[in-house]
Specification:
It holds the Pfam family GerE. InterPro entries: CheY-like_superfamily (IPR011006), NreC/VraR/RcsB-like_REC (IPR058245), Sig_transdc_resp-reg_C-effctor (IPR016032), Sig_transdc_resp-reg_receiver (IPR001789), Tscrpt_reg_LuxR_C (IPR000792), WalR-like (IPR039420). It comes from Streptomyces labedae. Keywords: DNA-binding, Phosphoprotein, Transcription, Transcription regulation. By secondary structure, this protein is an alpha/beta fold. The chain contains twelve helices and five strands. A five-stranded parallel sheet has the order 2-1-3-4-5, sandwiched between helices. Helix 8 packs across helix 11 and helix 9 crosses helix 10. It is globular, with a radius of gyration of 18 Å. The N and C termini lie far apart (48 Å).
């Protein structure tokens, strides 16, 4: 994995913490987003732990650049905030999740392992918090809403129901109970939604459902 943070003390702490895990190898470190693309080319990490705020090229720009690559590594955003606009932007760009800088070491190690295995590192509770934060925004502009609606039009009715449930932060078992289907079927629907909409993870499903106004529709009497 690759560590990206402008604070050498933070990098040293993360390197010590993560390097102690037998199944995690630190292949490089960067102090700014401007260094990331070349370092990824050279080291080919599976996971990048990316600070948001850096002096030259911030972590958001670096995340967007990396996720535009065909061989993009998974990215975990490192932040001091639970749900600010920058975290939402990073998740829209395809980050697999985020961890707070004061997260206990064992949880950061577990988050890296989950992302390396292809799982997002946002719990249903955090997803709900993010959606609440997004709902508090002035709202997506007409252009974003129109584009989001065009994309979700590719979903069939059942997939649309699952997308709305994901947008509400429900876990697979909760979706299964609400929609009267098995957990395996929910997982299949989620996989199909990701493939149809060319998304990276279920948090992006939730954000797209929000942008398209699907959550508002189901809230209407």
């Amino acid at each position: 994995m690759l560590l990206v943070d402008d604070d050498p003390l933070v990098r040293a702490g993360l390197s010590f913490m993560l390097g102690g895990a037998d199944d995690i190898e630190i292949v490089g470190e960067a102090a700014d987003g401007a260094e990331v693309s070349a370092l990824v080319d050279r080291t080919r990490p599976d996971v990048v732990l990316m600070d948001i705020r850096m002096p030259s090229v911030d972590g958001l720009t670096a995340t967007e650049t990396l996720r535009g690559r065909d061989d993009a590594p998974q990215i975990v955003v490192l932040t001091t905030f639970h749900a600010d606009d920058q975290v939402l932007r990073a998740l829209r760009a395809g980050a697999a999740g985020f961890v707070l800088k004061d997260t206990p070491p064992a949880e950061i190690v577990a988050a890296v392992r989950r992302v390396a295995a292809g799982d997002p590192v946002l719990s249903p509770a955090v997803t709900r918090q993010l959606m609440a934060h997004a709902a508090g925004d002035p709202g997506p502009g007409d252009g974003r809403r129109s584009r989001a609606r065009d994309r979700v039009a590719a979903l069939n009715d059942r997939e649309r129901e699952v997308a709305v449930a994901v947008g509400r932060g429900l876990a697979n078992a909760e979706i299964a109970a609400a929609l009267y289907m098995s957990v395996a079927t929910v997982k299949t629907h989620v996989s199909r939604i990701l493939a149809k909409l060319d998304l990276n993870n279920r948090v992006q499903i939730a954000l797209l459902a929000h942008d398209a106004g699907l959550l508002e529709e189901t809230d209407s009497p």
